[in-house]
Specification:
Shape: globular
Oligomer: single chain
Strand content: 35-45%
Number of strands: 4
Structural class: mainly beta
Strand order of the largest sheet: 1-2-3-4
Number of helices: 0
């Protein structure tokens, strides 16, 4: 595939906003379209919580949060 460099990339990466994902939890971030999902994990690597954010605007907007229960 042919590629072109964008002049927008010449300035590098800039932080636009930050989210507190916890300091000690293992965390993963998944983006699907305009939704960002933050998943934290227990020390046993099972999901502990999921938070969904809309990232369609200038700032992320929290949509929902759920805590996982032991199954």
């Amino acid at each position: 595939f042919p590629t072109r460099r964008s002049s927008d990339l010449a300035d590098g990466v800039h932080e636009v906003w930050t989210l507190n994902a916890g300091e000690k939890e293992r965390t993963s971030i998944t983006v699907v379209d305009d939704q960002l999902f933050v998943t934290t994990y227990t020390p046993e690597s099972t999901p502990a919580s999921v938070i969904a954010y809309s990232i369609s605007g200038a700032e992320p907007e929290k949509q929902w949060e759920t805590q996982m229960r032991d199954m």
